[in-house]
Description:
The chain contains five helices and five strands, in the order E-H-E-H-E-H-E-H-E-H.
Amino acid sequence: SLMSKPKVLVVDDEEALRFLLASELEAEAFEVQSAGDGDEAMELVKIKDEQGDRFDVVLLDIKMPKVDGFEVLRFVKGKVPETKVIMLTAYADVKNAIESLRLGASDFVSKPYDLDDILTSINRALGK
């Protein structure tokens, strides 16, 4: 329905940041789930897809142990291409940012991020 909240998946290995971002987004009327690593993120995307559902936006940290953001990005764009992915990068790392756009990310926001920047990026990705 038009009234349904956009669904956002927050993927970051820093628990405090994940919690903060999730609570800020919930306060802005998004439905939020979060994952602490790439494997968990891919599993959540897969389960949702099997339920005939999908996240509208994934906020995805590039630098994570084990499975990095690029691998998760490739997985999401392969499985649910209509889901928008916004990369969170801790570095003014233009190379990684450009690479993520090439792989299908909609946008990137550098950390430490500003909530307004993230909201602007999400709304732009959702076509609002």
